[in-house]
Amino acid sequence: MQLTITGLSKTYANGVKALDHVSLTIPTGMFGLLGPNGAGKSTLMRILATLQEADSGTAMLGDIDVLNDKPAVRRVLGYLPQEFGVYPKVSAYHMLDHIALLKGVIDNKERRALVEALLQKVNLWEHRYRRIAGFSGGMKQRFGIAQSLIGEPKLIIVDEPTAGLDPGERNRFYNLLTEIGENVVVILSTHIVQDVQELCNNMAIINKGRLLFAGAPNDALGEMKGRIWEKSIAKSEVDGYHASNKVISNKLIAGRPSIHIYSAGDPGNGFTGVEPSLEDVFFSHINGAHNTAAR
Ligand code: ADP
Hints:
Blueprint: E1 3-11, E2 17-26, E3 29-34, H1 41-48, E4 56-61, E5 64-65, H2 70-75, E6 77-80, H3 92-102, H4 108-121, H5 137-149, E7 155-159, H6 167-178, E8 185-190, H7 193-199, E9 202-207, E10 210-215, H8 217-224, E11 228-232, H9 238-244, E12 247-253, E13 256-262, E14 272-273, H10 278-286, H11 289-292
Helix pairs in contact: 3-4, 5-6
Bound molecules: adenosine-5'-diphosphate.
The site of adenosine-5'-diphosphate has 12 residues, from α1.
């Protein structure tokens, strides 16, 4: 099963074009949808999760028409939203039990076995009788994954799951995501490059509602090979370099700016060639350096 999105567009009432003719094919496995804040990721995720209408375009999950057959999508969907909003004051166990019941697992014995297995899987077993409202960010996200897995979904959508998690929680969450079956389409929407780097065999980059890249992270890295150059400069020089180069990122290393520029050939001037990282790929697409630079 794969998800095929064709020409999907959405403009909000205030005139913001959140999605502009997005076409994407998403195979099974972990797919990273990478974009900065405001890129249109949540809009796309909510449309696919049947929570919002598109203006035009199509989306097919296998033979399910996602935009027109919402009940069919909901039967095979696991969705972990960016924010749950209000966290319930009931225990993780009771909340999962309740959601499983709503999703149609009516047999008591079967439901208990399912809920217990999920709590073990997401490592919340020992906290099962604690109120979710009192969970840490990482625990809430793991609870979110547990509830999204009820009903053996074929499409799992996780929207910005690692924002706000500390590194330990993020790692536990990554490990959990990698255990989800290979036969499921998992879309991970994120502005954190590391999420995609660690987890995804396929990815897309979007910005301002437009698709800028789709493919394997390795292909994206391959395209940039030999084109990323680094130099440590003084703070006072930053603006000058921006004016005369395709600067794709500017980071402080031990308090001193280190810039990366995109250049098809050796720019000279003290720059050293570096192995491209996914972050370079991301920023060169977002900043447009990749498109406008001479090839
Ligand atoms: P992301 O998830 O990548 O941060 P969103 O899909 O939330 O992006 O937003 C894309 C654009 O649409 C942004 O410019 C945002 O301000 C705008 N937007 C999102 N939701 C609404 C809404 N309900 N009404 C108007 N504009 C919105």
